[in-house]
Design a protein that fits this description.
DNA Polymerase III, Chain A, domain 2; elongated; eight-stranded antiparallel beta sheet; 3 domains; alpha+beta; about 375 residues
Amino acid sequence: MKLTIERAALLKALGHVQSVVERRNTIPILSNVLLSADKGAVAFSATDLDMEITDESPARVDGPGQITAPAHTLYEIVRKLPEGADVSLSYTGEDPRLQVAAGRSRFNLPVLPAGDFPVMSSEGLSGRISMDAADLIRLIDKTRFAISTEETRYYLNGLYLHAVAEEGGPRLRAVATDGRRLALAEMPAPEGFAGAPGVIVPRKTVQEARRLLDDAGETVELQVSPQKVRFDFGHAAMTSKVIDGSFPPYERVIPRENRRVMILDNALFAAAVDRVATISTEQSRAVKLSVEAGRITLTVRNMDAGQAVEELEVDYDGEPFEIGFNARYILDVTAQIGGESAEFRFAEHSGGATVLDPTLVLDPTDPSVQYVLMPLRA
C-alpha cells in the first residue's frame, strides 16, 4: 500500500474515526484504525465492537492495499505536522511497519493485519431515511443532557428515538431521562420513519453523532433496525448497536394537570440559581423556591458555608407555595430555552404548602419541547 494525501484531509478523517477507539484495550486490534487505499481514495475505519465509524478522503494512490495502525498515535502525528503538508503513507510486506512521511519527518508505526480487523454488519437495517442535519442536531442538543449515566438502569443510558402518531401526522420524538429529570423534543417524522422501530441510541453513540454532525452537509441519512442504527453524514458514516431493552412509559411522568403557571425571565432566573448555588452542598445542590404572587425567592442553606437568598419578579398570581430542585438540573433545563422567558407549570399542592409533584417546564417559543423536573426537599 502506498498513497499520498493532504494533511488537512487526513487529519479530518482520522479525527472523525479515532474518537471511537478506547484509550485502553485488551484486544490490540481495537486500538488500531483500518486504512484501505484503492482507486484515488483512502477509507478509514475504527470500532469498539459496539460502534463503528468510517470515513473516506481522496488521495493519490500509487499502490492499493489495506493495513491497520495505532489510531491515536497516527492522529497525534498528523495533528503535529505542518499545515499544507503532503503526507505519504506506505506499507510493504518486507517491513512490518507503516511508514509515515511528510517533509523531513519520518515515522515508522507498528501494524496489525487488516484481516484481523472486525467489521460491523449492516444486515437488517431499514431503507435510508433522509432528514435535515439541523433537525437531528436540535433533537440531540435539546435532550442529551438528561441521558442517565448510571449503569444499573442500562435502558436509560441512551436517547429514545421513536415515531408517535399525532393528529397532525406522525412525529419523530427524542426522549431522555435519568429518573430525576426528563427531556423531550419532537418534529414531523421524516418520510419512512413512521414504520421504523423505536430504538434507544447509546450515550456514546449520541455524542459521536453530534460531533460528526458538525462536519455533515445539509442532510443526514438514517437506517434503523431493532438491533442497530446507522447514520450517514456524507463521506463519514457510523453504525452502532442499540440498547437492548424497553424504554419506560415516559408519558406517565409528564404532568398534564399542572395548572399553576409561573412565567419568568429565563436568563435572570438561571443567573440567580447559579449564584445562590455557589454555597450549596455538592451532594444535593438543593435550591428552595418560595413562590408567591409576583415574586420568587431562591434560598440555599448550608451548615458549613452559610446561606444565600435572592429574589426575582415573576408573572404569577396564585397561592404561595414552596418547592425544591437540584440547581444543576434547573440550569441544564434553562440552558435549552430558546426565548427570553421560561414557563413553569406546578401541581396544586395538597396537605401543605410544599409541592413534591413533578414540574413541567416549557419554552414559549418552541412548543415541540418539554422538560420535567422532579422536586426534592430543600
